[in-house]
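re: ur question from yesterday

yeah so i grabbed the chain u mentioned. its 78 aa long if i counted rite. heres the sequnce exactly as i have it in my notes:
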Amino acid sequence: MNMNELLSLPAAKLKRILALKTEIERLEAKLASITTAGLRGPGTNPARKRRKMSPAARKRISLAAKARWAKVRAAKAK
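ran it thru and got these structure tokens back, copy pasting raw so excuse formatting
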């Protein structure tokens, strides 16, 4: 329906169209809330527990990383 056809409609019919459109939007919003109620959105995930690493494990990882970088630097120097 174009603008000219809308302007030629009686006021009562325009009010009815507006009421129906409002009702459709309300029902669509209700449907969307029902369908997404069980889905988790961003920010609704429970906080994940952080895994703790022992100091010994951190030290081993640190030493391994330092060894890898030393190897890279040694290859670059050649």
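noticed a couple things. The chain is about 70% helix and 0% strand. also The chain has a mean pLDDT of 86.
anyway ttyl
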